[in-house]
């Protein structure tokens, strides 16, 4: 059982996923800092001292801080856009590495010809 677990845990996919989770968490902190320390102050500056994080609504003594929710939405869109750009770049590199269909068709045609030659040589003996 331990051997099976080691094989599972140390496969490339599991390690890649673990690295991606750690990097993603760190990236999330960076984006949160960007929103909290740069974007929100810019919005405050442009709107005339309205801090998004301090926006709230009080109903029957209950405080709903929808400003913090808006900051989380901004975080989400920045992270989603960054991931989108990253995946597009990876897909462009991947497309360059894949052989074109014309090349594989030419190789397949050559293989067929070689098989025919082999079969004719076998019949001739």
Comma- or semicolon-separated keywords:
two-stranded antiparallel ribbon, ion channel, 5% strand, transmembrane, mainly alpha, transmembrane helix, single chain, Non-ribosomal Peptide Synthetase Peptidyl Carrier Protein, Chain A
Q: Can you put this structure into words, describing what you see?
A:
With 125 residues, this protein is mainly alpha-helical. It has a single domain, classed as Non-ribosomal Peptide Synthetase Peptidyl Carrier Protein, Chain A (Orthogonal Bundle), CATH 1.10.1200. Helix content is 80%, strand content 5%. The protein contains 4 helices and 2 strands. Strands 1-2 form a two-stranded antiparallel ribbon. The longest helix has 36 residues. Belongs to the MscL family. Keywords: Cell membrane, Ion channel, Ion transport, Membrane, Transmembrane, Transmembrane helix, Transport. InterPro entries: Mechanosensitive_channel_CS, MS_channel, MSC/AndL, MscL_channel. It comes from Sporosarcina quadrami.
Provide a short characterization of the protein structure.
The protein is mainly α.
């Amino acid at each position: 059982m331990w051997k099976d677990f080691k094989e599972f845990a140390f496969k490339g996919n599991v390690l890649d996923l673990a690295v991606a989770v750690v990097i993603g968490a760190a990236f999330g902190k960076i984006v949160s800092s960007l929103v909290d320390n740069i974007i929100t102050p810019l919005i405050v500056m442009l709107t005339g001292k309205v801090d998004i994080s301090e926006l709230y609504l009080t109903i029957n003594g209950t405080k709903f801080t929808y400003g913090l929710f808006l900051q989380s939405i901004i975080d989400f869109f920045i992270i989603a856009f960054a991931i989108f750009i990253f995946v597009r770049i990876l897909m462009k590199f991947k497309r360059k590495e894949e052989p074109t269909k014309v090349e594989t068709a030419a190789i397949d045609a050559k293989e067929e010809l070689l098989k025919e030659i082999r079969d004719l040589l076998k019949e001739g003996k």
